[in-house]
Amino acid sequence: MLVRSDFPEADKPWLLVVFTAAKCQNCDAVCDETQKLAATQPSRVSLVRVDSPSQKKLHHNYGIEAVPLTVVADINGEVRACHLGLLSPNTLSELAELVANG
Fold first, then answer.
1. Distance of alpha carbon 71 from the chain centroid
2. CATH ID of 4-91, from 3.40.30.10, 3.40.1190.10, 3.30.1370.10, 3.40.50.970
3. pTM for the full model?
4. Is the distance from CB of 46 to CB of 7 less than 8 angstroms?
5. d(CA 49, CA 31)
6. Using H for helix, E for strand and C for coil, what is the string for 63-100?
7. Angle made by CA atoms 21, 54, 74, in degrees to the nearest 5
8. Is-cis flag, bond preceding 68, omega within 30?
9. Is residue 99 a contact partner of residue 37, using CB atoms and an 8 Å limit?
10. pLDDT band at 91 (very low <50, low <70, confident <90, very high)
11. CA 81, 12, 8, 91: dihedral to nearest 10 degrees?
12. Domain boundaries in the chain?
């Protein structure tokens, strides 16, 4: 469960959070892909990058120990998808379908 008020644009139906770390090339790649995904549904998806160490408190609050971690939560904060690591085309497709039709 994500507390929607911990993130900007909490009123959008979908929250797409990417937990990252500074100087992480895989994190940058995941953020690039999630930006493209969010751009397809701008009125439905709030994309947030939570970088450590600058946002270490949120990493700690949610028990994030490995990055990049992509989390998709619905309007109630219920986590509907979670993926650790790079996003495959299949995973991206599944996430896109979730935010478009979920």
1. 4
2. 3.40.30.10
3. 0.93
4. yes
5. 7
6. CCCCCCEEEEECCCCCEEEEEECCCCHHHHHHHHHHHH
7. 70
8. yes
9. yes
10. very high
11. 30
12. 4-91
